[in-house]
Amino acid sequence: MAETDPERVAIRFVNEINRHDTPKLASLMAPEFRFIDSLGQEVRGVERMIAAWTAYFALFPDYQITIRERLSVGQVVALFGTASGTLIERGELPHRNHWILPAAWKAVVRDGRMVDWQVYADNTPVQKLLETRS
To answer: Where exactly are the structural domains of the chain?
Structure first.
């Protein structure tokens, strides 16, 4: 039987992100899934989100989320911790391209599936790294 507890679904979602397992991520998303990044930009739908994650994991092959605290009320789960990664450069992960940021995530889970996943973080260090790539 599929897990329906919102907090457990949110933690499983993070675990699949950390594994970069896009098929399992897709199985945890509701058809109406919505991702909102720290700038307020939205990606809607499972296929578009999987494409976005695939591209992101290619840029940051060691991307990880570490959860330190969590709160939940009904279908809403708040997660607090850090996100980290290293921008790939010529097939390598140079230390100068590594970043770690405090971050928070809001998850809305309905019937055991992720409906909304919103990120709250100051991504300035990541944006600066990406600008050097251009």
So the answer is: 6-133
Per the listing, tokens 């739908």 go with 45
**What are the φ/ψ torsions at residue 41 (nearest 5 degrees)?**
-75, 140
Contacts of 120 (CB under 8 A, 6+ apart): 38, 103, 104, 105, 106
> pLDDT truncated to tens, each residue of the chain (134 aa)?
467 899 999 999 999 999 999 999 999 999 999 999 999 999 999 999 999 999 999 999 999 999 999 999 999 999 999 999 999 999 999 999 999 999 999 999 999 999 999 999 999 999 999 898 76
Handedness of CA 72, 122, 66, 55 (dihedral sign): positive
Strand arrangement, sheet containing 76-86: 42-44, 29-36, 113-121, 98-110, 76-86, 64-73
Q: 6-133 maps to which CATH number?
A: 3.10.450.50
DSSP string, 65-91: EEEEEEEEETTEEEEEEEEEEE--BTT
**Parallel, antiparallel, or unpaired for β 42-44 and 113-121?**
unpaired
